[in-house]
Model the fold of this input.
Amino acid sequence: MNYDEEISSHHAKIIPFLNQLNAQIISVDDFFNLSIQHFDGERKKGVVKFFSDGKGFGFIEREKEEDLHVSKKNITEIIKEGDKVEFLIGKGKKGPEARQVRKI
Done:
């Protein structure tokens, strides 16, 4: 099993557990800033409105809600404008952001 498959396998086991417990996870952002990520427990769906791999961020359009910021570090595969995605919502430095984003 290669590294990506192993990580994917671990995510498949961990995500349902986190969703069930409405998890709060401690993570280190940018190697120095300690923050608490709070996931609301339910994967949301949206469409990639804009994403720049070069800039390392983009936005996900959600029906009847504000667009959501997504950082390159929070995607599990390459995404582009128009892709349908699902994600968790976590607390970022400037407000809510998409986490664990993957295409559907």
In short: Confidence is low (pLDDT under 50) at residues 22-36. Strands lie at 24-29, 33-38, 44-52, 57-62, 65-71, 84-92, 95-103. Helices lie at 3-21. Residues 3-21 form the longest helix (19 residues).
